[in-house]
Amino acid sequence: MNQYDVAIVGAGPAGMAAAIESARAGLSTIVLDEQPEPGGQIYRAVEAADALRLEILGKDYARGRDLAAEFRSSGAVYLSGATVVNVNPDLEIFYSKAGILTSFSAGALIVATGAIERSTPLPGWTLPGVVTVGACQIMLKANGRVPDNAVLVGSGPLLWLFAAQMIAADMQPRAIVETVPRSRYIAALAKLALNGAAIGYLRKGLQMMRTVRRAGVPVYRDATSISIRGNERAETLCFESGGGHHELPVELVALHQGVVPNQQITRLLRCQHIWNERQRCFAPVLDSYGETSVPGIYVAGDGGGIGGALAAELQGRLAGLRIAEKAGKSIASDPAAIRGELRREATIRPFLETLYAPSSQILAPADDTVVCRCEELTAGQIRAAIDLGAPGPNQVKSFIRPGMGPCQGRMCGLTTTEIIAASKGETPSLVDYYRIRPPLKPLQLGQLAAFSGEKSDRDTIEGGARG
Amino acid sequence: MLKQIQGSSGENITFTFNGKPVRATATDSVASALLAAGEISVRKSPISGVARGPFCMMGACFECLVEVDGAFNSQACMLQVRQGMVVRSQPAGPDAPA
Amino acid sequence: MSRTADLVIVGGGIQACSTALHARMRGLSVIVIEKDTVARHASGVNAGGVRRMNRDYAELALSQRSMEIWNRIETLLDDDCGFQRAPQIKVAETEAQLDEMRARVADLNSMGYDHEVVLDQTQLRTLVPAVSPHLIGALASLDDGFALPYQTTFAFQRKARALGACFHEGLAVEAVRRQGADWQISCRGGETFTGRYLLNCTGAWAGRLARQLGENAPIEAVAPMMLVTARLPHFCNAVVGGPVGRPLSFKQMANGTVVIGGGRRGTPDPDTNVSEIRFEHLRLSAAAALAIFPIMAQATIVRSWSGLEGFTPDDLPILGRSSTAENAFYACGFSGHGFQLGPGVGEVMAELIATGSTSTPIEKMSIKRFN
Prior knowledge:
The complex is a heterotrimer of chains A (467), B (98) and C (371). In chain B, 7% of the residues lie in helices and 30% in strands. With 98 residues, chain B is mostly beta strands. Helix content of chain C is 28%, strand content 29%. Chains A and B meet through helix 2, strand 8, helix 4 and strand 9 of A and strand 1, helix 1 and strand 5 of B. Strand 23 of chain A pairs antiparallel with strand 18 of chain C.
């Protein structure tokens, strides 16, 4: 007996939209999210944002407010501060909230855990004072703070978006150091579709760049050989650009090379994944509704492949609708129309992905660059394990421990796969990825020991939601 | 390092980090408050002892691990500050009994 | 690479790699055929206990011989295998349990074994101060240890290969048949190999190859589960086994992480190489660890894992000659405690295969007991 028809992990745009559809269709729906409020990362802290913050962060962010409001009144049960630590193949879901481990079972699961930032292994990236651009944006959204001495380094729309947001907040980056090679602009232009939503996104992007230029932010282009130096903290950023060597004194360095699907849950559940060469990451294999290779398990949002916030909402709706339809409920929306909107949204992707492909420096880190931050393992050590004969990421993991620290491979997994692929002359698809096992996030032994071993009833769970 | 944006509530919460008082706003996470106070390193890596500090601010990197009110391995970026919180850099884990 | 060797070993875990090395050292040519990758299964993911303590009497001589090799493992393999000397202990909660331990030690002493002793409560608390105060003593083998299973098995493979053993990984054996005085081994995809001697080291799958030899090896595929924590400051230098009724294996590694086993079972599927964690059973391992080590309440579990192991009905391995077929041998069914035996099994099986007999008594583990 399932306690809920649908369980959704993640309360970002995909999770919220899915919950709205599924609850509206009359399915008992529960949403679990680690954060204290809905929004995921893209709409982080959107409910609490005042008028000034909404202005700084822009209209796209403000959309999250309406979505969150609709989500709150959808009738779905919402557990904030709940970390999912395991999902069994029969969709028994185990979560930890306020120090207590609880489980329940669901008829279907929608994984809406979004994306994480691609790791950017550079010399010195583990020094204190080095963060991600996403981290800076989270601090702006959730903590009302903006760095007063930050250099943004890397590539991707987020660099320009955050720089523009800083300027709207009466601040600006000390510099932008972009890693996009000149040749990519030509290659990307060839992929530019002038239909669908592409024009709108292109216009927005150009506007951000104009804002940054007008503010007088120094921009270094086609940066290579980047390293961060310092004694116990980031002090100097070194790189080549425009034919010259540069050394910028720094206080905070913010790195970014795009985002990649968070594959922890889909890997745990042994969904099939494929390697997306243009996005340079793994994504779960999905049908046109977002159902994975495992029946009853769906993915909506960036976790199924990077598409942005609006695509995430549309995919959430599709998954919610599909589950309702399969449960024999009548559905109000037309999946074909939603897919049409998704296609419109996706028209900008080939251009963006070509232009902002990850830099070769981070895909093939130098031997002495740390790749596994938790265990302090370098690219060279991983290569040495391969040379010794370890056949793949799981053996390298067993042998020298990358992926065995608290981050469970989130920071090093993709880089390890790239390094092994390059070393062995195999495709990343063949090399594949670390085997993912529970717990999905580190779990206190005492909590696991205290677990009753029995599923909880809805009263207990929903009592916890109100607490 | 990290300025408050206009209209923020002001730094009216105080907690301690390794015994030192740290001011924070009501919407700070422990990590954002520490970074704002210039405490960019919150722990030493258990491998080689090098200094490490917050990196991703979204709970994925596990660099910001601190002891909060006695609870080890707390992710500073996932916790909202509270008046009087006692935050400490942690050793690799719980101390052995005497 | 040649398709013919004196010895063809089917399976690529520690028993296979150890026998491959020792057979090479005795001058036999060796081919190892492994359907996945070396140490993919039990040999790569077990708890790593190097334990003589509390073994069935039938295994004592073999275990002792194996320990002698462990003591020189770095010289043998050019790899330290992460081997650490450490006491292996089994705690007691009741006087009755302690009495049984005393009786066992008396038996062992009379058989000429002195590696195990009984610790009283004071001695236990001195050795492992962090144990729960309700424990009243322990059985201990002070000179045992633990090592890293993947690293060890991989090291055996590398050394065997360096001495000329041929490894074929990703190749599944489908059929074996007699061809004159030899064995012909056919693999999926059509490759065939020829060997004078055949050794079945196929672990959880060993029953299938046994059937081809016309005999019964009643091996059940089991998926024991393990947990590991984040690093903790050192508080435990012994490998601790739980008391009767509270299955637990508990060790703190050199790097401070704590590995917790105890045999709680996940869901095995040998046909798909899947060993599924049963999370709701894992809590029993956590509860046992907490009962023995209250300090662990705040330790964070970073990972769990499982693997496919072969268990026999009496928990003793199947070792030695085939009961039906000439020049066919077995080293399988180690029922969750084969890691420490690996070095010794290799030496004994190489001796048996090369010379026709072994000085170490292994008859009690013969496949004859099931046929």
